[in-house]
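Translate sequence into structure tokens.
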Amino acid sequence: MSFDPSKFDGSTMRIGVADQLSGVQVAPAVAAADDGIDPKYRAKATEAAVKFESFFIGHMLHQMRAGTRVLASEDSVFKDKINEDMLDMADNLVADQLAGQRAFGVADAILRQLLPPASAPVALAAALPGRAAPANIAEPQNIPKTLNPAK
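Result follows.
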């Protein structure tokens, strides 16, 4: 497969950086109908999580390129720094696109911590085989009464 420069349309290229997504459509966060979380907070948390994932992926790509330059031989094409700025910009665009698709799952992991569902502890305990959901998560469990005089 070869590249035909006559079919290239540069007008569709956008400049993206890790702190500002370049019009990337972000996959919507899964929201329960009445989970009690403010929609504005959910939107801000989702945006921040996706931006962090974009930064994370961009930094990873940058470090991979830097490692390739260090390991390349002196006469290698990878040692050349002529197009380094353009490659960094391309890496940021790729990072924005991947983060917008939540390809690495970093944003999802952050959102699971920032926006826990209201029934998460009960659902998690019920999902474990052979265990019933505890009545109160805050109560000490499996502690003999002699070691827990507060009761």
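Note: The first helix runs from residue 39 to 71.
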